[in-house]
């Protein structure tokens, strides 16, 4: 009888310990899914892919579901219809939504890129390029109302060029088809994102002659944003997300283009590794990757100046209305 009791007690303890350990394991493995809708797939967003691939989001207990929604309007529609929790898109989209009188404004909470990401590509090689050489040429630009187009026009005006009078400006080509249009003979010059610009240069289809990012200065070109209601209901998630992003931003700053290219290569299977490395080096050298998630007031005002110059600013919006820096400031402070 004593042996049976002793055995029963031992078995009970084993069961209790097993259940306890299983419970702890379940708690440790519990993750929260965050759905990100990115406006396009671009090496320009390298820190985001680093955060995923280096496990920085996972360290914070977050599982990222990343979807490419191809276009600012589609990205914002996805966010507003609850098809995503977080959108990675240009800050101008949050202004457009606010101007339409949304009851649940879209709030910018973490900046990813801080310059324009496009480059001026010429069909023929240009020695000693001067911006005035663009006059009377056919210029294949970006979609009206988007950041690339607005920054492009802003830079042209800074160099004394009226985009609508001094150029034969083409803006009716869909974003995804612009590279193909240029490759098939449309335009003398084109405004292109990477890695397309570098690929064209390598293949002899065009030549990079200037950077719109260098010319335009700092601007919240691409930021992570979410609906105000989601942020209020998921404060811990927002902090964890921003913390993981900040880790990735620091990692990108501390590592060279070769190391970064190896990490993000799985996201660009159709792009050769040396091209990825070249593009990252180009973006790093011109300071395109934000070094922290804070979208400051000066950048916000610069964005609205660019929008106003392009006659696309519905109304001026105060920085504190659509930007939340408290999360990023808390993360950096800790």
Automatic annotation (TrEMBL):
Coiled coil: none annotated. The keyword Cytoplasm does not apply. Its main location: periplasm. The keyword Chaperone does not apply. It is found in: Periplasm. Keywords: Signal. Transmembrane segments: none annotated. Belongs to the bacterial solute-binding protein SsuA/TauA family. This is NitT/TauT family transport system substrate-binding protein. It comes from Rossellomorea pakistanensis.
